[in-house]
Write a structure and sequence with these properties.
The structure holds three protein chains of three kinds.
Chain A: H1 2-10, H2 12-44, H3 49-64, H4 67-77, H5 87-112, H6 116-124, H7 129-159, H8 171-182, H9 186-214
Helix pairs in contact in A: 2-3, 2-5, 2-8, 3-5, 4-5, 5-7, 6-7, 7-9, 8-9
Chain B: E1 10-19, E2 22-32, E3 37-41, H1 48-55, E4 63-68, E5 71-72, E6 75-78, E7 81-84, H2 87-93, E8 97-100, H3 112-123, H4 128-141, H5 157-170, E9 175-179, H6 187-202, E10 206-210, H7 214-220, E11 223-228, E12 231-236, H8 238-243, H9 248-260, H10 268-274
Parallel strand pairs in B: 3-10, 3-11, 8-9, 9-10
Antiparallel strand pairs in B: 1-2, 1-4, 4-5, 6-7, 11-12
Helix pairs in contact in B: 3-4, 3-5, 4-5, 5-6
Chain C: H1 2-43, H2 48-63, H3 66-79, H4 86-111, H5 115-123, H6 128-158, H7 170-181, H8 184-216
Helix pairs in contact in C: 1-2, 1-4, 1-6, 1-7, 1-8, 2-4, 3-4, 4-6, 5-6, 6-8, 7-8
Classes of the chains: A mainly alpha, B alpha/beta, C mainly alpha.
Membrane topology (chain A): Multi-pass membrane protein
Keywords (chain A): Amino-acid transport, Cell membrane, Membrane, Transmembrane, Transmembrane helix, Transport
Function (chain A): Part of the binding-protein-dependent transport system for glutamine; probably responsible for the translocation of the substrate across the membrane.
């Protein structure tokens, strides 16, 4: 057992670097996911049928697709169609646009939760679509959508482990490196699991704080 | 000098609205003149609310025209026919129309004052202090000057509806549309809302009121419009409509109503609270 | 044209891989149901230590990446002297993972069922587990079918990860084809289409089952 701890301490810088990469990639992917997801949810309410169908198709495709396949198409298939991106970029974009489909569904359920009459009252008060979003829809939705959003961010963090397969030096990849160098197996992965768990708990804690703040 | 008749605030011509195979409005024409109080009555499902919602363009109408102060609302005439206006132009065209809804539709995450001032603050480019002052005046007018910092959920239904009226007033509209403003209220709260509306009528504000409150219509309206099955069946002064109805449908409607409210002839004053 | 024949030539391989994908995920889901129900009753147990242990299990399996869980199990089994083929390690990992998620789904269903029913069953002398099996479980299943279909789709997608421990399911087969044809874009898109088709079929089945059960009530 002491051996395991000694190894953990010896390889801590490597694990920490991996954790940091996981964290910034997930942070960027979350921002992309939320922005694109909000855009998709807004387009889903558009009057154009073609636009709405396209959005639905995008969401259904992403939800039926393993993230690993999406990453492989982008990373290994991309160069074939002139798309040359490094592994980190593929990771951020892949996770972001994949997550966007799920964030869009969360926003959509949020929009649905607001009584139609409130939107009509806002239109009668002369507010533009953007102002209605900013002042009437979003502030009310926030309390409702924060828990599923936090949940989705946690799923995204866990999914980011897959980036190790396309060689991004994040936590799981660095742990594999640790395994290769020491021939210890279970110890390093347990350390990784613990770090993921801590990261997830930290996000959950942050989520609960935000949840308290957005209650009106 | 030649007499110049007043230009109507709202001019509705041949308005048709269908929901799939169902025709809710089949060719309505109606003018609302400045300072007029028009009450629209009729059985439920007769298209009263739909008419009001089409007038505000909350509902797209199928054909016909709605003009607000001489400006076509919702559509634009082109050689190729009617084309839907952009949201921005629709907002501009109905800038002077206020609306009060059956279910108040206050925004629950804002204080009473914020509910009243949000519209003017975001759309009129008036300094914040001035907007707030106008909001307070509007709230004072509906008797809720002391409630500025409360949230809607802490108010009674009648108070909420008065806030909604203040919210409409704060936009300084040229006409206010009331869509069954007392139908969602407990009977004992109806009076306070009708009192406020009466006061607005006395101030000369142009109002169109869809209502089941016959007492209010009898007392306050300059003109009563009876609708049934998507059509205007009869209209005229309240005195004429209630006492000498011409069409059998209106007679039937009034009879049914009287049977339900036996008080009608003896004590019209109490009706306001009774129904 | 070349693309069409490329896909056509490799379609049998891809479909074979898809079959393994469905098999591995299907077994995991089915094994996960009874275990998930047990964990669900553990989560709602009246004994505090049972509740805490159940929650700990759930927290661990829901709070870490499934890829890491898979690797731990894959390496841990031989370490414990159990030399199992990769496909079995994959099934074990996916099952242990889905149990944690299914338990939560079942718990949601359980909470929606009136408490009095269990009490009524106990009062006519039916034993606790018998009552659970005959009174609660059928109702829970009826309530949770949509969530269960979603969980199945999620496991099916996650099963692509078992390719890293050399299980030749759809993902792995695609990689092997790419290694010989050097046509990653076309092959991975083809695999993506198969995944989406299978998941689409699943959601259709789920909807049909939901309607049948709804009529049966």
């Amino acid at each position: 057992m002491t051996q395991v701890f000694e190894l953990w301490i010896e390889y801590w810088p490597m694990l920490a670097a991996g954790l940091a990469t996981t964290a910034w990639i997930c942070a960027l992917a979350t921002m992309i996911g939320i922005a694109v997801g909000l855009l998709l949810a807004c387009l889903d309410g558009a009057r154009s049928t073609i636009l709405r169908r396209t959005v639905r198709a995008y969401i259904e495709i992403m939800r039926g697709l393993p993230i690993l396949i999406l990453l492989f198409v982008l990373y290994y298939g991309g160069p074939g169609i002139g798309l040359r991106l490094n592994a980190e970029t593929v990771g951020v974009l892949g996770l972001g646009f994949y997550g966007a489909a799920y964030f869009a569904e969360i926003f959509r359920s949020g929009f649905h939760s607001i009584p139609k009459g409130q939107i009509e009252a806002a239109r009668m008060a002369g507010l533009s679509a953007g102002q209605i979003m900013r002042h009437v829809k979003l502030p009310q939705m926030l309390a409702l959508i924060t828990p599923p959003m936090v949940n989705q961010i946690i799923i995204l963090i866990k999914e980011s482990a897959v980036l190790s397969i396309i060689t991004v030096a994040e936590l799981t990849k660095n742990t594999a490196q640790f395994v290769n160098e020491t021939y210890a197996v279970v110890g390093p992965y347990l350390a990784a699991a613990l770090l993921y768990w801590l990261l997830v708990e930290a996000v959950a804690l942050l989520g609960r704080t935000v949840e308290r703040m957005v209650r009106y | 000098m030649i007499y110049d008749p007043p230009k109507p605030v709202i001019k509705i011509r041949n308005l048709v609205k269908s929901f799939g195979p169902f025709t809710a409005l089949s060719g309505i024409s109606l003018d609302i003149n400045p300072s007029e109080v028009v009450c629209i009555i009729g059985p439920s499902g007769s298209g009263k609310s739909t008419l009001l919602r089409c007038t505000a363009f909350l509902e797209e109408y199928t054909s016909g025209e709605v003009e607000i102060e001489g400006r076509l609302l919702g559509y634009r005439k082109t050689p190729a026919g009617m084309v839907r206006e952009s949201e921005r132009n629709i907002d501009t065209a109905r800038r002077n129309v206020g609306m009060v809804f059956q279910h108040f539709n206050l925004w629950p995450h804002m204080t009473v004052l914020d509910n009243v001032t949000l519209g003017p603050r975001l759309t009129k480019g008036v300094p914040a202090a001035e907007v707030s002052e106008k909001g307070r005046i509007a709230l004072a007018k509906v008797g809720l000057a002391d409630f500025t910092d409360r949230y809607p959920s802490r108010l009674s239904g009648g108070q909420q509806q008065r806030v909604a009226i203040a919210r409409a007033l704060a936009m300084e509209p040229h006409v206010i549309l009331f869509d069954e403003p007392t139908s969602a209220l407990d009977p004992q709260l109806v009076g306070e809302v009708l009192d406020v509306m009466k006061q607005l009528a006395n101030e000369g504000i142009t109002m169109v009121v869809v209502t089941h409150e016959m007492g209010f219509a009898a007392q306050v309206a300059n003109r009563v419009v009876f609708m049934d099955r998507g059509q205007v069946v009869e209209q005229g002064s309240p005195d004429k409509l209630f006492n000498e109805p011409e069409s059998p449908r209106l007679q039937e409607f009034l009879d049914t109503w009287r049977q339900r409210n036996l008080l009608f002839r003896s004590e019209p004053q109490q009706l306001v609270a009774a129904c | 044209m070349a693309t069409v024949s490329l896909i056509y030539d490799n379609l049998p391989m891809l479909l074979w891989g898809a079959g393994i994908t469905v098999l591995v995920s299907g077994v995991a889901i089915v094994l996960g149901m009874p275990l998930g129900l047990v964990l669900c009753f553990g989560l709602t147990s009246s004994r505090a230590w049972v509740r805490h242990l159940s929650r700990l299990y759930q927290s661990v399996w829901r709070g870490t990446p499934i890829l890491v869980q898979l690797l731990i199990i894959y390496y841990l089994l031989p370490f414990l002297g159990l030399n199992v083929p990769p496909v079995l390690a994959a099934i074990i990992a996916l099952t242990l993972n889905t149990v944690a998620f299914q338990a939560e789904i079942f718990r949601g269903g359980l909470l929606a069922i009136a408490r009095g029913q269990m009490e009524a069953a106990r009062m006519v002398g039916i034993r606790k587990w018998t009552a659970r099996r005959h009174v609660l479980v059928p109702q829970i299943f009826r309530l949770v079918i949509p969530s269960l279909v979603n969980e199945t789709i999620s496991i099916l997608k996650n099963s692509s990860l078992v390719s890293v421990i050399a299980v030749t399911e759809l993902m792995r087969v695609s990689q092997q084809i790419v290694a010989t044809t050097y046509r990653p874009f076309e092959i991975y898109i083809a695999a993506a289409v198969i995944y989406i088709a299978v998941n689409f079929l699943l959601s259709l089945l789920g909807r049909a089952a939901e309607q049948r059960l709804a009529r049966g009530v």
